[in-house]
Amino acid sequence: MRNPDRRVWIGGQWIEIVQRLDLDHFGEFNSFPKPEIVLGPIRNDIAAMTLIHEMLEAACEVLDVKMKESEIRCLEHCIAALIVRSPQTVDWIISELRNSEKNCKAENIGVE
Ligand SMILES: [Zn+2]
Question: Which one, of 56, 62, 93, lies nearest residue 77 by Cα?
């Protein structure tokens, strides 16, 4: 897995991403003893899909939202397709959200 980020920000907290070569399935989210996403020994493209899936699992757990496995899979595929087929929209969203975050930080420290 070559994801440069070893953690993801979900529901107000950092959740570590680790890979375990002995995992016998694609991935899992563990909330205990510390929240972490575990990926198995899988190809990078499968790891990317699995990471989307496990981030959704983590969000449901952290935010106490109940979703069926089939609903999470549906969203996983929807988000993956959005990223692949509408990359400019995704880039625009990222850019605008970063600007928004910068503006919030600037307002918080009194800078315009
Ligand atoms: Zn699942």
Answer: 56
Ligand 1 mean position, distance from CA 4 (Å): 23
- Predicted structure pTM score: 0.86
3-state secondary structure (DSSP) of residue 7: strand
Query: 76 alpha carbon to ligand 1 midpoint, in Å?
Result: 10
SS3 109: coil
45: CA distance to ligand 1 center in Å? 17
Bridge partners (DSSP) of residue 27 are 39
Longest dimension (CA), the chain: 52
**Does an H or E element contain 60, and which?**
helix 44-63
The Å distance, Cα 104 to ligand 1 centre, comes to 34
At 56-83, the pLDDT tens digits run: 999 999 999 999 999 999 999 999 999 9
Residue 41 CA, ligand 1 centroid: distance in Å: 17
**What are the boundaries of each domain within the chain?**
7-85
